[in-house]
């Protein structure tokens, strides 16, 4: 095989390497103060050898950081998923939260989970304040924050 063909093969295969979030999913709810579960399918290359996980809220066009969950996670190590952490106290308790995975090797390479609920410690939550995205997509959202 020529060096050019090898370059094309490895170049294209690494361009498509991606870490894939698999949980939480739609309808999932976690009580504040209890364990929040995050899962992903590991990247079989070194493209996601180091990534961070952020808890986010907001619309698809104006995502807002709520808090950093983890940094320096090896996305090629399948034994690290699922990842558990303690769900924070937030406001509002609603299904407006999602995780953003940030590839430390490529600052523009990001992946997201779907929205899920963080509920009160007794399991209560309110509907998202916005039933659709600003562009009309039927994805409910709202703006959340940590409670001090």
From TrEMBL:
UniProt feature, compositional bias: Polar residues: 120-135
Record's signal peptide: 1-17
Residues in Yeast cell wall synthesis Kre9/Knh1-like N-terminal domain copies: 24-118
UniProt xrefs under Pfam families: Kre9_KNH
Keywords: Signal
Keyword Signal found: yes
Matches recorded under InterPro entries: Kre9/Knh1-like_N (IPR018466), SRP1/TIP1-like (IPR052982)
Domain of life of the organism encoding this protein: Eukaryota
Location of the region described as Disordered in the Swiss-Prot/TrEMBL record: 120-148
Protein name: Yeast cell wall synthesis Kre9/Knh1-like N-terminal domain-containing protein
Organism: Jaapia argillacea MUCL 33604
């Amino acid at each position: 095989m020529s060096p050019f063909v090898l370059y094309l093969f490895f170049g294209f295969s690494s361009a498509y390497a991606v870490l894939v979030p698999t949980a939480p999913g739609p309808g999932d709810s976690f009580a504040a103060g209890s364990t929040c579960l995050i899962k992903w399918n590991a990247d079989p290359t070194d493209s996601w050898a180091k990534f961070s996980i952020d808890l986010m809220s907001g619309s698809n066009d104006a995502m807002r950081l709520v808090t950093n969950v983890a940094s320096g996670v090896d996305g090629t190590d399948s034994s690290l998923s699922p990842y558990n952490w303690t769900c924070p106290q937030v406001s509002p308790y609603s299904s407006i939260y999602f995780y953003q995975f940030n590839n430390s090797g490529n600052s523009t390479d990001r992946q997201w989970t779907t929205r899920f609920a963080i509920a009160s410690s007794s399991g209560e939550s309110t509907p998202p304040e916005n039933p659709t995205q600003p562009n009309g997509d039927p994805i409910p959202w709202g703006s959340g924050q940590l409670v001090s």
